[in-house]
Amino acid sequence: MSKNTVSDRFRKVDVDEYDENKFVDEEEGGENQLGPDEAEVDSLIRQYPSLFTRQHDRAEGLVLKVLSSFKSTDIEKGVQSLDKNGVDLLMKYIYKGFEQPSENSSAVLLQWHEKALSAGGVGCIVRVLTARKTV
Amino acid sequence: MIDSGGVLCVFLEEAAMSYHSFLLEPISCHAWNKDRTQIALCPNNHEVHIYKKDGNNWSKIHVLKEHNGQVTGIDWAPESNRIVTCGTDRNAYVWTLKGDAWKPTLVILRINRAARCVKWSPKENKFAVGSGSRLISVCYFEKDNDWWVCKHIKKPIRSTILCLDWHPNNVLLAAGSCDFKCRIFSAYIKEVEEKPAPTAWGSKMPFGEVMFESTGTAGWVHGVCFSDSGNRVAWASHDSTVAVAEGGKTAVCASLTSETLPLLCVTFITENSLVAAGHDCYPVLFVYDSNKAALSFGGKLDVPKQSAQKGMTARERFQNLDKKATTDSKEAVLESVHKNSISQISILNGGKAQCAKFCTTGMDGGMTIWDVKTLESAMKDLKIV
Fold it and tell me: Which residues contact B265 (CB under 8 A, 6 or more apart)?
């Protein structure tokens, strides 16, 4: 039968890279998001967002800890102290937290969600869904 | 009141707005003729229906059947009285009125995906079609061959073009796309026009040149609009933002995040005021301050019906608790005139500089005509600058 006399290196070529219609996401990498420096939640969120997953998970875990440590009555004040971008960012973390529910997280997150919703409106949630940069 | 034409007309609040329910299906797109006595609309199928105003009624006078797919865009050229339609069948037709009937002329767009929007240029010698083929077809009439020819604008578009608007100079074209960007292209066709004079967006305008590309908003760009002077462009994005850019040495962008659902269409009603509408079913006013390069929320433009606020009986409370698990007395009924998303907005009188009346059509099959002056006086704190 036919012998493979020719090199088969072509099999290792990623042809999708050469597709001129291929969509390349133009995300600016590694930018630290600027944010307001009011509440404790804010400063922590500000330090950590980045594109590396491990840091993502650490950031999310930290934010969740902080959110859980707030007293129920203080949640509203915490949300009020954030500006528009802060509320959007908070909503992103809330939904990220919903993705991986732990013991008590959902209940706490739901309380935060209610307050963030009244501050940011439905538009805030739409921005979580359409955001190019995820947390 | 329901008239003999079977069309429901409701007049509210000294004609701040008048609502006509044309259909039970969504109105995919619409266009008005020059004197606003006739409206062409697509009733969510392959046809275009033209209705004529008859006192308080609307009667269907023409049915344009040629498309093999849903008609996604209609534009009616006021001076030359031609209608251009485009559809999901990848075609566009230019319709001319011959006697008592509209005759179609096929335009080969050379696209392999659905056409999504179409607009006549201000001088009506060209029209542009946005499509899912990730390009804009700019079509013009070639006298020698007696048919419509098109040129493509491809780079750097990465996804479907959802909306288009022409600059008053007949050359620049703003396009909103699913690749999250609003861009201004030059659609200069040397066969049909002279070289354009410099504008706020630049002076060199070869065909296909990108004069402006937006940054800062995410989400598909559903609606785009030039201001009357052409120096400003506004766009509405799916991330519930609306933005305005002003041309200049460096284009200045101002955007506003809103608390509402995404807006689908936007138009200037004066050089500084925008009206936008979308999935929240009511139009909203935005005001642009060029000194501060800032956009602000101007107010909701729907005057709610004066419904008697009756208290809830104990029985109703219990019913609500049973049905909806809440004793909240706010009903889940839309108070707005439109009962479903508003998908298109068009200026009726006054142009984009001093709009006196504008029209919205939506997925509830209804069309509403809004009177700007009456709205301004009906709503306190509403200032149209």
Answer: B163, B222, B223, B236, B276, B277, B278, B342, B343, B344, B345, B360
pLDDT in tens, A4-51: 678 888 888 888 788 777 766 655 433 333 333 345 555 565 555 544
Of B134, B159, B261, the CB nearest to A126: B261
Q: What is the identity of the amino acid at A74?
A: D
Query: How many CB atoms are located within 10 Å of the residue B100 CB?
Result: 7
Across the interface, of A21, A84, A132, the residue whose CB is closest to B257 is: A84
Q: What does the DSSP assignment read for B139-161?
A: EEEETTTTEEEEEEE-TT--S-E
In DSSP notation, B122-141 reads TTSSEEEEEETTSSEEEEEE
Contact A132 B238 (CB under 8 A): no
In this predicted complex, what is the ipTM?
0.79
> Is A130 within 8 Å of B219 when comparing Cβ atoms?
yes
| Tokens 């019906």, located at residue | B305
Q: What is the DSSP letter of B196?
A: P
Q: Is A22 near chain B, with CB under 8 Å?
A: no
Min Cα distance B281 → chain A (Å) is 14
Grouping H, G, I as helix, E, B as strand and the rest as coil, residue A87 is: helix
Model confidence pLDDT, tens digit, residues B113-167? 999 999 999 999 999 999 999 999 999 999 898 899 999 999 899 999 999 999 9
Q: Which residues of B touch A (CB under 8 A)?
A: 134, 158-159, 180, 218-219, 237-241, 257-262
